[in-house]
Amino acid sequence: MCGACAIALTLSTATAIRVYAAQPQANIAGQPVDLTYAAEKAIPAVVHIKYVQNSKTQTIDVQDDPFGDFFDPFGFFGSPNQGQGGTRKQRVQTPKKEATGSGVIISSDGYIVTNNHVVEGADELTVTLNDNREFSARIIGTDKQTDLALIKVNAKNLPTLPIGNSDDLKVGEWVIAVGNPYNLNSTVTAGIVSAKARGLGATPNGIESFIQTDAAINPGNSGGALVNTRGELVGINAMLYSQTGSYSGYGFAIPTNIMTKVVDDIKKYGSVQRVMLGVSGQDVLNYINNQKEQGKDVDLGTNEGVYIATVDPDGNGAEAGLAKGDVITEFDGKKIEKMSELQAAVNSKRPGDKASITYLRNKKKVTKTITLKNAQGTTKIIEQADIDVLGGQFRPITEAQKKQLNITYGLEILKVSNGALKDAGINRGFIIQKVNDENVNSIDELQKLVKSASTSKEPVLYISGIYPTGKKAYFAVPLSE
Q1: Which residue in 12, 48, 117, 283 is the catalytic one?
Q2: Annotated catalytic, 48?
């Protein structure tokens, strides 16, 4: 499963690797590095993932033809408003989608790490082991911001890949990438660590601190393993840099030190527990260069760190005293040279943790220690809510309801029991049409909106819809106490 990711970035559906920890022979100066140990131990823990998204009927807005008659091969419905240049609702049948990727077995009882983009939206996931055994997999949890996902198969005594410390990687160190590029199972490529803590801007609001490698990573490798010469997992392959969509020099992997925290949170809490620093900015060097292009000389007292452009008055950064123009140079005792390093350091923390922030203001060093809070401004654990929190039963509206109420989509509430709907005063029979400004056509869409809102800064569902009498109504439904 692969697609464009920023300019010239391609998500590569990748592989998983398995390696056993042991003591490989030391490399002799002047001799080539022996990677056979790492490859032999890694391959059994690499899995092939097949993704299937079934065909679905969706309602979309389409532009009306302002010049009169139109041909209607898909069955438009609603009020077409022909000749007025407006929009109409159209029902379309989406094609069945299939794709492949890779994953890494991290525990013998069937937990597998892969990329979020490998499994997102899947109706069926099939995992094939290196010994050709096949299992159906279920998604335990996903994290779009780091592009990671945890899935599980019902099996025991599976080969596993020990997890190494990605912070210990050195530029120039040899690594191998194991995966299933182009459906070529158990493919091993080798290269070196070309750079660390790369931020690419590939994912909006993403947390990026990639390991860059010249080990070939191609479509099909996503979710696969980056392994050091000691047979330890040090990264999850995620994307490649290419003008053509195929490998042409550099691949990127998510460090295990980001992966470990995400996996632990998903297992323990069901969602990633994240603190929000509440600042925006950029690498100091980029800021200085931008100012130079505008003919301005800037002296911040350093060429390294993160320049702060804005500060959320309710965030952790404001509590630490940060203001526009400051430069963050350390976080919790770790030197910060660029934004990607700050993102990784902050992402390693949970609400309630204490951390020190060191920054320069007018070239003078300031250090503050604060208790970190989540996006909702608390130190509590945020558990991702399920649709059950609403206390209702739902079904898509019928064709008769569409004609009677002159609407084209919505979910009817069949029953209301104890839960958020009852607390908000929403009764049986109400038809939900929009939640947080998103059209709701199916129970799956409602489920996604509930999950998203429950972990957001404002855990509230703003629901609008219509009663069977034709009366329209609007409700605010809090998802937390």
Answers
A1: 117
A2: no
Rounded distance between C-alpha atoms, residue 36 and residue 42, angstroms: 10
Active-site residue among 102, 166, 194, 222?
222
Splitting the chain (481 residues) into consecutive groups of 10 residues, what average pLDDT does each group show? 37 37 45 84 95 78 51 37 54 84 96 95 94 95 94 96 94 94 88 90 77 90 94 92 67 94 93 91 93 91 94 92 95 93 92 95 94 89 84 92 92 92 93 94 90 87 94 91 61
Q: Is the dihedral of CA 466, 470, 474, 477 positive or negative?
A: negative
Residues 240, 242, 245, 246, CA torsion sign? negative
Please give the angle made by the CA atoms of 267, 272 and 277, to the nearest 5 degrees: 155
- Residues 427, 416 contacting (CB under 8 angstroms): yes
Q: What is the 3-state secondary structure (H, E, C) of 389-452?
A: HHCEEEEECCHHHHHHHCCCCCEEEEEECCCHHHHHCCCCCCEEEEECCEECCCHHHHHHHHHH
Which listed residue (12, 48, 102, 147) is catalytic? Answer: 147
The yes-or-no answer on residue 117 being catalytic is: yes
CA angle 194, 168, 197 (to 5 degrees): 45
For the CA atoms of 447, 451, 453, 459, the dihedral, rounded to the nearest 10 degrees, stands at 110
Sign of dihedral through CA atoms 194, 195, 196, 202? negative
Return the bridge partners of 423, or none. Answer: none
Q: Tell me whether residue 388 is one of the annotated catalytic residues.
A: no
Q: How far apart are CA 65 and CA 74, in angstroms?
A: 15
